[in-house]
Amino acid sequence: MAYSDKVIDHYSNPRNVGSFPKGEENVGTGVVGAPECGDVMKLQLKISDDGVVQDARFKTFGCGSAIASSSYVTELVKGKTVDEVLQIKNTHIVQELSLPPVKIHCSVLAEDGIKAAIADWKKKRTPTSPKPEAAEAS
Amino acid sequence: MNGKGIYMDNHATTPLDPRVLEAMMPYFTETFGNAASRSHGYGWEAEKAAEAGREQIARLINAKAKEIIFTSGATESDNLAIKGVVEFYKDKGNHVITGAIEHKAVLDTCKALERKGLATVTYLPVDRYGLVDPDDVRKAITDKTLLVSIMFANNEIGTINPIGEIGKVTREKGVLFHTDATQGVGKLPLDVEAMNIDLLSMSAHKMYGPKGIGALYVRAKGPRVRLTPVIDGGGHERGFRSGTLNVPGIVGFGKACELCREGMADEGQRLLGLRERLREGLFSQLDDIFLNGHPVHRLPGNLNVSFAYVEGESLLMGLNGSTHPIALAESEPPIAVSSGSACTSATLEPSYVLKALGVGDDLAHTSIRFGLGRFNTAEEVDYVTNRVVHEVRRLRELSPLYEMAKEGIDLKSVAWQRD
What we know:
The complex is a heterodimer of chains A (138) and B (419). Chain A has one domain (5-18, 26-123): Alpha-Beta Complex (Sufe protein. Chain: A), CATH 3.90.1010. In chain A, 41% of the residues lie in helices and 19% in strands. Chain A has five helices and three strands, in the order H-E-E-E-H-H-H-H. Chain A is globular, with a radius of gyration of 14 Å. The termini of chain A are far apart. Chain B has two domains: 6-11 and 264-413, Aspartate Aminotransferase, domain 1 (Alpha-Beta Complex); 18-259, 3-Layer(aba) Sandwich (Aspartate Aminotransferase, domain 2). In chain B, strands 2-8-7-6-5-3-4 form a seven-stranded mixed beta sheet, with helices on both faces. In chain B, helix 1 runs antiparallel to helix 8 and helix 8 (247-285) crosses helix 12. Chain B has 13 helices and 13 strands. Chain B is of the alpha/beta class and 419 residues long. Chain B is 38% helix and 13% strand. The longest helix of chain B is centred in the middle third of the chain and has 39 residues, at 247-285. Classes of the chains: A alpha+beta (138), B alpha/beta (419).
């Protein structure tokens, strides 16, 4: 398979790899996919009190396109508001990285990862709910 | 090692040995006759060359030359063996026994027969190493059984089946025995008489011969095996397979068999040495990696390893030059290997072979097959070892699974959100 230059770039030099320190405030974590499916993406967003994404981190188990998709979205979300981030569609990632049809699921995973991270952040902000410590996400 | 890269995918195909090419060359332009032409020297010479090739091929498996039927390759040989037996002997029975990790050329042929209502097929399970139990074969045989088809060596994991034991069972029970020997023939000793093999598929391009030529061994005596042809026509190959003989291909196939036979013992030892060097190099430097297939009963050139927490296609991408600027090709040549990951298959399913061994889908996605061959060197093995170790470590730094495992989280207990 021929990979686009952008996929190769993000695969070879992935941006924002890693995890925020445990217990850091204002961090939403999304873990999507499953090892048996060959894709697991962990996306973390650090969001200010006024709802702006300040920083992002990822780790991904998956093919080159999955790694590139997650690396790309960590750049894409920075500086955007939560509402703007929730507007990001997988089709945008497909276009930007020139993903072939067989790799569209990688972009879907990245979109799901964003949504899961925001949902986690919102949940953590709700004062009445107990502090969520999703084992796989911390 | 050369600038074009390191080829370590010799189960997919092998390069043509230059000595084979040399033997073939005259048969394209000078001695170009049709081996079936009986009326002139062009035909006589072509026939003579084809018959010499037939002798060389037969000798490798202790068969007689007339028992070798030329085909386009092992896929056709498998089709002819299985469909040919089922159709010819349809008044005697309709049952075929095969194994769960056979090549698709066997499995899909069996499925096609089932779909058409021409046969019922038993798919025998394999153990965790990929071995078929001869006792399972014995138990599966009924009074309707026509044929047992079990591969010699597996193309993904290299596991070598107890073919001689299975042959004893089938001979005793009076059913025919076919083996797809594509991966093992020429690499390990095979004797159709001692092993009671009645039909045997082989392909030239897996043994440093040309693509597009293969053969089916069809036992002539004790018992005489009959087949209904799949390809009808001019009645070539004693009516088993019509079509003008591919004389240059046959000459190359014959030469390839001769080279394999002469060098088998030494080359087997050499490949085993390289394979173990690769295995030890990887296992001594990386944790959480797993050997797929049998530790001992496997092709000397085969190594199949799951690198936990690293998806196979992403690892291939780091090795195969996809990410390489051309300037790097000399100092850091790309590496050609293959993976059992879904992302590298046409079906988006991980390897059915690994699944049948009980390897979980999670580890199947992380498997890499190394296929060492005649032209690989120790220098290449060391380079490949280093590159693989480097890439696995890099990708594990990117892997959330590796991070979780190192934190002591049991990945099996996690409620994954499946997409």
